[in-house]
Amino acid sequence: MLFIPLICIDKLNKEEILKFLADSGTIDLAYVQEQIEMKKREEILQNHRYSIWYSERENAWYTTLPDDSKKTGRKNIKRKNRKDLEKAIAAFYISQDKADKKGKEEILTVETLFYKFMKHKVNGVSSGTINRMMADWERFYKSEIEFINTPIQNITKIDVDDFFNAMLNKYSLKKKSYYNMCGILKQMLEYAVDADYLEKSPYRNRGNKKKLIPDKKISSKEVYRANEKELLIQEMERRLRNNPSNTAPLAVMLDFELGTRKGEILAISTNDIVGNKIHIQRQVVEKFDVSDLDNRKSLGFFLVDYTKSADGDRWLPLTQRAKEIIARVQEINERYGYSCKDLLFSRKGTLLSPDTIDCQIKRGCEYIGIPIRTMHKIRKTYASTLLHNGVNVSIVKDMLGHADETTTIKHYIFNIEEESETDSIVLEALEGKNKVEKPKSEQSEHKIILFSDMKKARNL
User: Fold this and answer.
1) Which end of the chain is more exposed for a tag (fewer CB within 10 A), N or C?
2) Tens digit of pLDDT per residue, the chain (460 long)?
């Protein structure tokens, strides 16, 4: 009987070995297969990242294997002798490899691909982002049975166009909602390419953008006018008198002086206040249990040591009014014994939630009879006030914690004047009433310069 040395097997792939066997007819196929399996086991054991150990007490060999069903992500296995343990290790990785190959070969629909993509996404983004993406999936995709049951290999660019246009016809969408919806399909198809489910993504965005609802931002709805701001502050003072231990109204008042995000103002620590400045360096965020994507649950609000972006980490100057409000908050905390990680805004050992602030503003606006505006509108009022009073837009951007001026100008700058005052400002500007006359020495003399007649060039 003729045998192939093991070194030869190393140099041949399976197809080449089988071809050689078929041609020669003199090789023991069972032996060759055994050699291949032995070589495979050797490679697996070399790459096995967990240790193999012997327990004298139990007279057994142990190792660890990956297991996604466990909280730790791994499990221990044991066998009476080492050889059997090594066989179990090899069998585990071989079966796992087959399962992975089968998964890539199976026909994936849009829906099954989405859930694979989201399970991958869970490890890379916040639970809040996962919650938002799932909400968009449930709103736009889940009811589109025909589309989400289509195998992804059959999805064409035309199918994508048709789907987006169908969503534009079905819903009244603004730009942000539309692109959030499109982003889900774009990302999951990119994931399919990266995971080798597809060779090329069929994604493109040729939906009829003319059907998008124009995002008209009217100043009167985006910011608090001067009289509205004063009325709301007075209402916060009234609410504080009715409940002297509740610092939430003071958080609303302080935000008119700082223009921070809602989660940022609630994360301010007394240690962040240094002299005439305050350091914005953390935020309060809502976290979710996303272990079951279809049944997500809020875990509550948590303090995190980072801002929305790197530019959000900033120092803000404190106005005299801001200092007074902070002093009042500290006095209340001391009087009632409130303490939570040195936070400025806390109650009975826990931080104030953003919902508490929202409730104060909503009820306050309703009580004084003005349109209900969110905490974010205070931030826009702050930005608009700065620019209105001559602060350079680059400085306004820095105070808001934006990365570029485009975001500031496009989304945060609005007219804060009443309509009558706006008309007066425009008329005075047009009529030159606000124009400062320059001294005669600085005024340029206007001279009429006469040019000699220019004759057409003769044709030569």
Assistant:
1) C
2) 444 444 444 445 555 555 555 556 555 666 767 777 788 888 888 888 899 989 888 899 999 998 887 778 889 999 999 988 888 888 888 888 776 766 556 689 999 999 999 999 999 999 999 999 999 999 999 999 999 999 999 999 999 999 999 999 999 999 999 999 999 999 999 999 999 999 999 999 999 999 999 877 787 889 999 999 999 999 999 999 999 999 999 999 999 999 999 999 999 999 999 999 999 999 999 999 999 999 999 999 999 999 999 999 999 999 999 999 999 999 999 999 998 889 999 988 899 999 999 999 999 999 999 999 999 999 999 999 999 999 999 999 999 999 999 999 999 999 988 888 888 888 888 888 655 555 555 454 544 444 445 444 444 3
CATH number, domain with residue 396 = 1.10.443.10
**Structural domain ending residue among the three candidates 171, 194, 211:** 211
* Chain Cα centroid distance, residue 16: 51
78 shares a domain with 175? no
Asked, for residue 26, whether it belongs to a domain, the answer is yes
Q: Check if the beta carbon of residue 344 is closer than 8 Å to that of residue 330.
A: yes
Full domain range(s) for residue 59: 6-105
- In the chain, how many domains are there? 3
User: How far apart, in Å, are the Cα atoms of 409 and each of 374, 396, 406, 439?
Assistant: 19, 9, 5, 35
Task: Give the three-state DSSP class for 291.
Answer: coil
